[in-house]
């Protein structure tokens, strides 16, 4: 009996110890009869870094050259003997559309009208070059002359300002020979489009309404290289100074002539302008010279040329 009581007390003591141990340990696991899951694992840090976005957009591909383009670029460097051989090729250079002019030769000048256009002499280009598709517009220049309108040629421009604009584009005013070759080609045309005068191909009197017109508005007057308004609209400055006797000093077969600086008038003008009615002054071989007066100032415009390299 004693053994049983002793054993009973021992059991009670043991149960008491177990209760004392359990109370603090289990109190965190039981609240109001509900079981709360506990974990001894370290908390997982939540990243605030956004995943890198990988673009799936393909870069804009440069269109492959067409067969005609490839043919033009090859011809540009090998040269052409007639205008009809050439395939017009244009490209945008420093923001301006320009026409490629291939290697070749032509007979510069004329004996039909003015003595300062003679003697006729052979001129060759041993490198291609570029020339503006249109005359420089008010929009491209950044201001207007006598007539406002983005698509009108910039008129009333001085040679110095025209030259400065071309230089700012990495270009230059075309030489007299570059201008005439781009207008006539190896077929030696009288006008940019052919040998017969076509009034509707030119912005001039009487169809000009006494002012300039939107560049490229006479598509029939386009030249063999794809340049508009080489005849009419505004007279165009070239790099050379005017010298009535300059052609007499040129030998046959001159290559890439750069003109003369011995002229007495500031610079040459080519192509005629909006107030001219006589086709003589709209020929590609015509050599104009600067005359200072208000009317003529409104006739002065330009386009740029650029080396092929």
Written overview of the protein:
It is a single chain. This protein has helices at 2-27, 67-78, 138-141, 159-168, 176-184, 294-297; strands at residues 30-31, 34-35, 90-93, 96-101, 104-108, 121-125, 129-132, 235-237, 254-255, 268-270, 288-289, 300-301, 305-307. Strand 3 and strand 4 (96-101) form a beta hairpin. With 309 residues, the chain is α+β, with helices and mostly antiparallel strands. Strands 3-4-7-13 form a 4-stranded antiparallel beta sheet, with helices on one face. The chain has a single domain (77-307), classed as Alpha-Beta Complex (paralog of FGE (formylglycine-generating enzyme)).
Structure characteristics:
four-stranded mixed beta sheet; four-stranded antiparallel beta sheet; 6 helices; paralog of FGE (formylglycine-generating enzyme); globular; 21% helix; alpha+beta; disordered N terminus; 309 residues
Structure summarized in a few sentences:
The protein has 309 residues and is an alpha+beta fold. It contains six helices and 13 strands. The chain has helices at residues 2-27, 67-78, 138-141, 159-168, 176-184, 294-297, and strands at residues 30-31, 34-35, 90-93, 96-101, 104-108, 121-125, 129-132, 235-237, 254-255, 268-270, 288-289, 300-301, 305-307.
Summarize the SSE layout with pairings:
Layout: H1 2-27, E1 30-31, E2 34-35, H2 67-78, E3 90-93, E4 96-101, E5 104-108, E6 121-125, E7 129-132, H3 138-141, H4 159-168, H5 176-184, E8 235-237, E9 254-255, E10 268-270, E11 288-289, H6 294-297, E12 300-301, E13 305-307
Parallel strand pairs: 6-9, 8-12
Antiparallel strand pairs: 1-2, 3-4, 4-7, 5-6, 7-13, 8-10, 10-11
């Amino acid at each position: 009996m004693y053994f049983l009581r002793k054993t009973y007390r021992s059991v009670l003591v043991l149960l008491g110890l177990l209760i004392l141990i359990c109370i603090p340990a289990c109190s965190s696991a039981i609240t109001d009869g509900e079981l709360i899951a506990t974990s001894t694992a370290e908390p997982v840090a939540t990243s605030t870094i956004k995943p890198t976005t990988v673009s799936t957009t393909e870069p804009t591909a440069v269109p492959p050259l067409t067969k005609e383009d490839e043919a033009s670029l090859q011809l540009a460097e090998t040269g052409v003997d007639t205008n009809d051989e050439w395939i017009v090729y244009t490209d945008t250079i420093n923001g301006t559309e320009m026409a490629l002019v291939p290697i070749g030769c032509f007979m510069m000048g004329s004996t039909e009208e003015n003595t300062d256009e003679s003697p006729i002499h052979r001129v060759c280009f041993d490198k291609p070059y570029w020339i503006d598709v249109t005359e420089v517009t008010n929009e491209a220049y950044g201001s207007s002359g006598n007539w406002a309108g983005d698509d009108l040629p910039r008129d009333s421009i001085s040679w110095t300002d025209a030259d400065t604009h071309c230089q700012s584009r990495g270009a230059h005013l075309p030489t007299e020979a570059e201008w005439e070759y781009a207008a006539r080609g190896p077929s030696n045309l009288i006008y940019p489009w052919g040998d017969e005068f076509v009034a509707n191909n030119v912005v001039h009197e009487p169809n000009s309404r006494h002012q300039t017109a939107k560049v490229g508005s006479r598509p029939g007057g386009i030249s063999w290289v794809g340049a508009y308004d080489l005849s009419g609209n505004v007279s165009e400055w070239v790099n050379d100074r005017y010298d009535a006797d300059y052609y007499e000093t040129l030998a046959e077969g001159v290559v890439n002539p750069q003109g003369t600086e011995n002229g007495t008038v500031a610079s040459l003008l080519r192509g005629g302008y909006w107030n001219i009615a006589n086709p003589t002054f709209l020929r590609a071989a015509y050599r104009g010279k600067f005359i200072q007066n208000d009317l003529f100032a409104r006739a002065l415009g330009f386009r740029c040329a650029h080396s092929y390299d």
